[in-house]
Design brief:
By secondary structure, the protein is α+β, with helices and mostly antiparallel strands. Helices cover about 35% and strands about 30% of the residues. Strand 2 and strand 3 form a beta hairpin. Helix 1 runs antiparallel to helix 3. It is elongated, with a radius of gyration of 13 Å.
């Protein structure tokens, strides 16, 4: 992911949408990754999970606040490297 710092204002609030197979431990993987990168991440208040219409996939939506460009880049890189993640928006 390329981030033009001139267009982003930090700290920056954003919502990540992470999708994966419904039968994978996607939610736990996302929580583990975000907890590692974000001090104030609370899955009870910042996370929601929704199944797809046919139930084959789930989307995990996380409201996060990133502090700088490398913060965003590192989170996306780790999420994309996770075997349970199909796509990150």
């Amino acid at each position: 992911m390329t981030i033009n710092e001139e267009l982003w204002e930090f700290p920056h609030e954003m919502t990540l949408k992470v999708m994966g197979a419904a039968d994978s431990p996607l939610e736990q993987a996302v929580v583990a990754i975000l907890t590692q990168h974000l001090e104030d991440f609370d899955p009870n208040t910042h996370l929601s999970v929704k199944p797809s219409a046919k139930g084959n996939y789930i989307s995990v939506n996380a409201r996060i606040t990133v502090q700088h460009r490398d913060h965003v880049t590192n989170i996306y890189a780790e999420l994309n490297a996770c075997s349970h993640v199909k796509v990150v928006f």
